[in-house]
Amino acid sequence: MSYSQVTKNALARSLKKLMLTKPLHKITIQQLTCDCGVTRHTFYNHFQDIYELLGWVYQTEIIEGLEPYRNCSGWKQGFLSVLYYTQSNKTICLNTFHSLGREHLEGFLYGVIYEVVIQVVEELNMKEPERVSTQAMQDIADFYTLAILEQVIHWLKAGANTDPAQIVDKVARIMDGSISRSLANYHTAPIK
């Protein structure tokens, strides 16, 4: 592992440690670097701010493991793994959610969910006898991403106490066949 990677991991551990006792918006670069034992200059060599570091934490701990789940057969397991990660890192994730960085978490989650959903939409579109446009696929993916994201936000607002499998099951029941119907609806909708 490179020195840069070791430093980033150390900064990430310190941030997660501090987030267990302080709201994200109250953590300073000075507190972070002091806890980690590096200089401010070292921090800024790797990240622009604490939010970028937090994004890197989520990127490395969640997103990089989702690649195998970006398809029709795996999206449920990928969604479940994100919710289990959130639950096992509940204090940090809820801290992020309730802090000034909430828009960062929502934007991050939107991106994670969208990347999986668009892959599912594209896969289903390939099975259609008549394919829809890229814009139509993006519209469908955006719609379902926002619906799933709102389920996650509702779960977080309630304290992330419900079993993640229940959330995934609910979303799967509602979505079962609905993306295919949405693709078909783009073919039958009158042009205005």
What brief labels describe this structure?
mainly alpha; 10 helices; 73% helix; elongated
What do you see in this structure?
By secondary structure, the chain is mainly alpha-helical. The protein is built from 10 helices and no strands. Helix 5 (75-88) crosses helix 6 (90-98), helix 5 (75-88) runs antiparallel to helix 9 (164-175) and helix 7 (102-127) packs across helix 8. The longest helix is centred in the middle third of the chain and has 26 residues, at 102-127. The model has no long low-confidence stretch (mean pLDDT 90).
Oligomeric form: single chain
Could you give a short account of the major beta sheet? none
pLDDT average, as an integer? 90
How many beta strands in the DSSP annotation? 0
Order of helices and strands: HHHHHHHHHH
List the helices and strands and how they pair.
Layout: H1 3-19, H2 29-36, H3 40-46, H4 50-61, H5 75-88, H6 90-98, H7 102-127, H8 134-157, H9 164-175, H10 178-188
Can I get a quick summary?
The protein has 192 residues and is mainly α. The chain is 73% helix and 0% strand.
